[in-house]
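Form P-L/3: holo structure prediction, ligand FE2/S2 (inorganic) cluster.
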Amino acid sequence: PGSVPVTLRINGQTHQLMLEPRVTLLDALRENLQLPGTKKGCDHGQCGACTVHVNGRRVNSCLSFAVMHQDDEITTIEGLALNGELHPVQAAFIEHDGFQCGYCTPGQIMSASALLKEPIGKEDADVREAMAGNICRCGAYNNIVAAVQQVRR
Ligand code: FES
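OUTPUT (holo model):
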């Protein structure tokens, strides 16, 4: 009851769903589309684990209703590697050990891959600030910043 038709473009594929208007983009991805790579940490915009790209920009998918994104091109962590090649940010996270438990990693990588196109400064501190919306409880920040900086240089 109360469901409406919703069309979403995710990782280059079109999906037709029936969703209640209150369903977040995060829950639609995880529960309805079986794309659990996007993580739910806080579910209220504080942790960044749910970061996806909407038309190339990073968005906290827990703060957005799926029904609002019918004209958008959405990319999740599952769609970041292309043609079997890791995205450079993914490869750099592996090289620099940019994770410990890994729960925040999809969000960190989606955030980092979007910020490559944002006008931020060159210093490590600039990356830290630009990634401030992505919390890592293990404290892997130094390695995360090293990974991001390697791709930016
Ligand atoms: Fe969306 Fe934490 S789950 S910001």
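COMMENT: The longest helix spans residues 141-152.
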